[in-house]
Amino acid sequence: MRALVWIVEDTWQAAVAEAAVLLPPDADVTLLHVEDAESESVVRAARHALLGRARPRAHEGAEPLLALSAQAAAELLDEALRGLGRPARLQARRGRVEREVVAAAEAVDILVLARDGDREHLGPRSLGPAARFVVDHAPCRVLLIWPDAPPSVATIPPPRGAGDPAGAGDPPPAPHS
Known about the structure:
Blueprint: E1 2-6, H1 12-22, E2 28-36, H2 38-51, H3 63-84, E3 89-95, H4 97-105, E4 110-114, H5 129-137, E5 141-145
Parallel strand pairs: 1-2, 1-4, 2-3, 4-5
């Protein structure tokens, strides 16, 4: 089994802990961190706008940020590797985060990631935009975990029309075949 564990700053510990427990001992594991390339383009654009220069070249003015980002990613991946407690490949990418994760998932059997949105309620808002994209587009199985204890089922919003005793706001039941 080839497994990919998506390392995100806020939730990586939970993803790594679950991967360590749930993945088979012989799994070929890759720890992936993706740096959003948008931050470097913001730095370039701001520098050139302030100095009145036209059309910045790729990475011009962003070198210090790129070096810091690469160093932080390497340190985070090393810490995640120690937390996993077994051999794994380390992969650092740069680009549109959600697209890079989906591209990396093309080569694996399972992707492990942690919810990164609302941790107080069950529901779709428990996933941030990048995680939602990855879950919806992953070309492999997905193991989606809560970074903390999951919220109670009492946090599910009431159905539409919940004040109506007949449940008129509920969608009609699906036909049986």
